[in-house]
Amino acid sequence: MLLLQLLVNGLESGFLYALTAVGFALIFGATRIFHFAHGATYALAGYGFILGERLGLGPLASLGIALAAALGFGLFIEGAVYRPIERSRGAFFTLFVAAFGVVIAVQSLLELGFGRSYVVVSSPLSRAVSWNGLYIAPLFWISLCTALLLFGALALFLKLSPYGIALRALADSRFLIRTYGLSERRLARLAFALGSALTVPGAVLGALSTGLTPSVGAHIMLVSLTAAVVGGIGSMPGAALAGILLGLTETLAVDVLDTAWSEASGFVLLFLFILLRPQGIFGAELRR
Amino acid sequence: MISYLVDLGQLVAIFGLLAASLNLLVGYAGLFSVAHAVFFGLGAYTAAHLALAVSPDLLLGVLAAALLSGAASLVFALPALRVRGEYLVIASLGLQMLGSTVFTEAQGLTGGYGGLAGIPAPSLFGWTLESREALLAAALAILILAQFVINRLMRGSFGRSLMAIRDSESAAESLGKNVALIKTLAVALGSGLAGAAGALFAFQESFVNVESFTLDQSVLILAMVIIGGAGTLAGPLAGAALLLLLPAALSFIPHLPPTEIGAVQQLIYGLAMTLLMIFRPAGLLGRSEGGG
Fold it and tell me: Do A255 and A8 form a contact (C-beta atoms < 8 A)?
C-alpha cells in the first residue's frame, strides 16, 4: 500500500516535471539554446501566482499574473540575453554563465520580495481524500488532467498548425526556414513563449501543494536538464516520459533510501545516462 | 583592521589557487565543470582528518589532499572523455549534486552540517604557524609555485597538446596525440590543485562543513575564472580578488539593512555575470574576440 501511495505521489510530481521539461525540450529543439534559466521562469510564475493570491485577486487573475510573468520573462531573456550573445559568438558556455547569472539575480530578487522561507498558498484542493485506503488530493487529478490536456494540445499544434509545423521545421533546418521566407527570429520567440507558458501549471500547482522557496528555480533547472538528457535532447515525448520517471524515482528513493537521497537519486540516473547512453532514450546519435 | 586584511588576503590566495586550478580545465582544456567544489571539499576533508588524527603538518595535508582529489577526479574524467559541451556541464552538475549529498549524509566522515571543528594550526618543518601572517605567506608561496608550474606546463608540450585538443580534438588525434591520457592528466592536475586549495582552506578556517562545497561555490569559482578571463594566467586571480572584495565593498553602502546584504550581493553578482557575458564574453583580462 505504501508503495502504491508513493507511486501516486511520484506521478503527481512527475506530471508537473514532465510539463516543465517539455517546455525546455521545445525551446531547445527549435532554437538550439540550452535554456539554463528555465527554472527561473518556473519560480517567477509560481511567485506571480502567490502575489496574486496575496493581493486577494482570486485564482483566475492570479493564474493570469503567473502566465504573464512566465511569458514576459521568457521573451525578455530571449531578446535581452540570449539573442545578443548568440549574435556575437554563440559559444554555449557564455550562454550558460549568462543564464546562471540571471538565475542568481531572480532568486535574490525573490528573496528580497518574499523572504527566504517556504511560501504556500493554502487551498482545499491540496487536502488529501481517502480513496480505498489511498490518500489522493484533488490536485493529483488536476495535474493529471492538465498534463494530458496540454500534451494533447501541444501535439495537435505541432502537427497541424502552420506555426507548429514551422517550429518543427526550424528544429530540422534553419537554412530552409530562411529559404521559405519565414522569420527565424519570430519562431524563436514563439518557442520561448510556448516553452515558458508550459512552466505555469507546474509552478501554480507547486505553490498550492508543497510550496515554493526562492531557490526552487535551481531545482527545476536540474529537473528539466535531467529530463531533457535522459529523454533525449530535443525529443518532447522523451522529455515527458523522463519527467514522469524522475518524479517516480525521487519519490520511490524516499522509500528505499532516505529523504536526503531522493534528489540525488535523480542525478545518479542522469550521470549513468550521460556515461552510458548520452543520446537518451529517444534521442538520435550525438552530432558533436 | 590588519587582521581583517590578512584574512581577506588568505582567502584571495586560496580562491586564487582554486580558480587557477579550474582555469586549467576550463581555459586550457576546454572542459567545463561545475563540480569543482567537490574536489575542493575532498581536499579540505582530507587535510582536516589528517590534522585532527595524525599531524597538523601543512605539507603533508596539502600533498595528501592533492593526491586524493587528483585520484578522485577520475569520476569527472570519465564523462569528460565521453561527451563535450553542454553534456559535460550537465554531467558535472549531476556530479556536484551527488557530491553535496554525500558530504551532507556521510556524517561519520564529514560531520554533515556540523562539520569538522577544531582543526589545529598547521606546522611546517617543525614550526607551528600560529600567526595568520605566517599562514598567509605559506598560502601565497603555494599559489606562486602553482602558477609557476601551470605557466611552465602550458608553454611546454603538454600544454600545447592540451590546447590543440581543446581547439580540435580530431585534428590533435590525427597528429598522434593521446587524447584520453592528456585529458585525464589535465583533469587530475586541476582537481589535485583544487584539493591543495581545500587543504589550505581547512587550515585557514580551522573548521569545515558541507556549506563550503555546494553548487553555489562551484558556480562562484567558475565565475571567478570567467569574469577574470579564462585561459589567461592572471585572469583567475583577478576574478577571485574581485568577487571576494565585492561583499566587503557592499558592507560600506549606507542604509542597507544587514539582513538584506546577502540578497543584494547575490543580485549584483548575478547581474554582473550576465552583463559581462553579453558585453565582454572573454572576461576582464581575456583577449576579446578571436581567440578562445
Answer: no
